[in-house]
Amino acid sequence: MSTPRDSYHHLIIGGGVAADKAARAIRKADPETSIGILSADGDGPVYRPALTKDLWHGEDEDPASQDLHTVADTGAELFTGVEVTALDPAAHTVTTTQGHTVSYGQLLLATGSTARRFGAFEDERLIYLRGVSDYRRLRELARPGKKIAVVGGGYIGSEIAAGLSTTGAEVSTYFMNETLLDNMFPPSITTHLEKVFAAHGIRLFPGFQLDSLELGEQITLHDKTGQQATADVVVLGLGAVLNTRLAEAAGLELRAGAVAVDARLRTSAEDIFAAGDIAHFEDPIFGPRHIEHMDMAERSGRTAGRNMAGGKEDFHYTPLFYSDLFEDGYEALGRLSTHFELIEVWDEAKSAAVIWYLEDDKVTGVLLWNTWRSVPKAREVAAASRAGTLAPAELGGQITPGGTAPWQEKT
């Protein structure tokens, strides 16, 4: 079909993992219902973490290998490159840029987030890696000998730099802080990571706050102190902005910049649900929050889909997030910030750790560094800490650092 139907029993706005999981849950609950997916992205749902992880480090660099096969598996009608410009909760309709008005019985907002942009610069050599088309362009430009500058030393910037190091390009990372990822990790880890990144040929430039760009034969980056650098390609990893414009314009309740949902992921409007990045929910351990990671998209998308199809399931879940940086990897819960008090528990080899982040003597985050199969226990301990039944002095012996990662078992 080239255009959407006039109406669907279940309509999903957004084309990411949350949309895929919701469509699967709806179809399982109701084999006959109609499902429509309207996505502004030009590609169908893929496993997006691979865009900064597996596709760079694995054997298959084709993003088609990460296709979730949503349409084939669910029978949903998917329309890519379709932006929804208006949502009318009272009329139960949405309007697209193509001028189509589509009515719905139940609607899911799974609009996710977009890359935080730097000014209005437009150039094919400036890349914000969020979708498949961005990945394809960066893969084409990342050739041996090319100078690539990654701006941003956080979660995304560090992953992109690590991935690009496999291409033969000359990779440099420019970031504001004193060391890579020092907003999240203590010196015991950041010092190690600096050595690892250097060993893989990545040059690190701390204290660099991007002020302007100059587009010429090469791209010149200027920072606020007068430093400058040149590159053939610039990847900007400056964080993300939640796509809540549609919800806000429709009058849905927002909370802390995200879309407020109840225990069943319903928004303030009848028959409208929200999942993924944009959903502001009640975390059973850490309280009200939103989280922009894959586990949240998968779990909340599935629950929202079940409830759209008539279920009555509470989203009672604390999402995790994870990353792999060369031979190191981690899983984490809650908020990781070095502004909190930290309790570090290392193994004898100083290669694996459990790090507890505390605020007012209560766990507010857990980092499992090279420590595996411990997320359920970490949730249990964090909940006990926040309930006041576990003192900070008792945290050290709760989880033993180390273990073998699932991906290590495959090699």
Automatic annotation (TrEMBL):
Keywords from the UniProt entry: Dioxygenase, FAD, Flavoprotein, Oxidoreductase
GO molecular function: dioxygenase activity; FAD binding; ferredoxin-NAD+ reductase activity; NAD(P)H oxidase H2O2-forming activity
UniProt KW Flavoprotein keyword: yes
Protein name: Anthranilate 1,2-dioxygenase system ferredoxin--NAD(+) reductase component
Top-level EC class as recorded in UniProt: oxidoreductase
Biological process according to GO: mitochondrial respiratory chain complex assembly; programmed cell death
InterPro entries tied to this protein: FAD-oxidoreductase/Apoptosis (IPR050446), FAD/NAD-bd_sf (IPR036188), FAD/NAD-binding_dom (IPR023753), FAD/NAD-linked_Rdtase_dimer_sf (IPR016156)
GO cellular component: cytoplasm
EC number: 1.18.1.3
Stretches assigned to the FAD/NAD(P)-binding domain: 9-301
Domain of life: Bacteria
Record carries keyword Amino-acid biosynthesis: no
Pfam families in the record: Pyr_redox_2 (PF07992)
